[in-house]
């Protein structure tokens, strides 16, 4: 399940980290100004404001762990509170003469990045009013008692201005880059979630279609089966050819039932099964049981140097591999080429690969493979559901399905799965 974090929650998380650094930087700045440069500042009030930042940030961090849903108003309130604290710090340390007034820009930048126009305007106005208030209410900087040798008060102010500019630029770059990266990750997660929901919806529709077909065809097929059995008993003394026709009808009815059951399983039931512990060799063995003798004659199995363990919905996996194998066999019907089925992996991921040397797929059509009802097979020979369901199975198990093909040289399909996956549930 994809976590749905709002942009405000992401920004508030980074603001909490930034406020810890800010509190530490403020305390260090007070220490350097008083101890290093000998400035006579009201240390206790300054440290009280720094402590207020730290304590409020601790409360905010604890609250954020319990309440992941964050409204923009909370982020705007925190930024407004920080503006008041910054104004207090500057008022106690020189007011408009303090070069660290540039830090107002950090709050305005963050508001413009993640908040709406109204909050951005409000934060901007508060920053302007805060800086303007420094001209009326501030504690002037006293004379410096210890200026470095060869230095002057003017040079010290220039140095402070440069340091404030560098610090402000670095903080803005850091905040914008990290928040933008987090928002990009969130956007990608939302896109993946939407794609997953769209596939699940299509899969549910296919499941409903399969269930409806099974329900509608079950009764007439049952009637045909009964009629075929009665026909067999009535014509025991009739020519042998009629008896064979009756048995053929019965066999075809059973075949139709099997097809409907497999269709229904592929549409959803196999994807809702409980994962089982198995190995790659056992999966390939069960795959062989699903295939006919003519199909097995054109297959080459390569289980690798050793069997690898995995935990997954085994029935669904075998059905997916059977679909991929039959696609490969169909693609190489003209050449009667061999289709290779192999398994490789490590302690974390497994890869089942099905490779044929058939006609291949044009490069322009590759992106569309996996769409429901899109197929490169001739009309009447496929509905394009096999790859769609295979890709859905892979995604639901936390894996992926990759196709590589070159026209005229064949296709390689790679099904990559984690060695252990949770139970998979699909509507339908």
TrEMBL record:
Q: Which reaction is catalysed here?
A: ATP + protein L-histidine = ADP + protein N-phospho-L-histidine
The residues covered by the Histidine kinase domain are 212-421
What are the record keywords, sorted?
ATP-binding, Cell membrane, Kinase, Membrane, Nucleotide-binding, Phosphoprotein, Transferase, Transmembrane, Transmembrane helix
Transmembrane stretches, by residue range? 43-64, 122-141, 161-183
Organism domain of life: Bacteria
Q: What is its EC number?
A: 2.7.13.3
Q: Which SMART domains match?
A: HATPase_c (SM00387), HisKA (SM00388)
Q: How does it sit in the membrane?
A: Multi-pass membrane protein
Q: Where in the cell is it found?
A: Cell membrane
**Cross-referenced PROSITE patterns, in alphabetical order?**
HIS_KIN
Single GO MF annotation: kinase activity
CDD domains assigned: HisKA (cd00082)
Give the PANTHER family listed for this entry: SENSOR PROTEIN CREC, SENSOR PROTEIN RSTB
Protein name (Swiss-Prot/TrEMBL): histidine kinase
Q: What is the lineage of its organism?
A: Bacteria, Pseudomonadati, Myxococcota, Myxococcia, Myxococcales
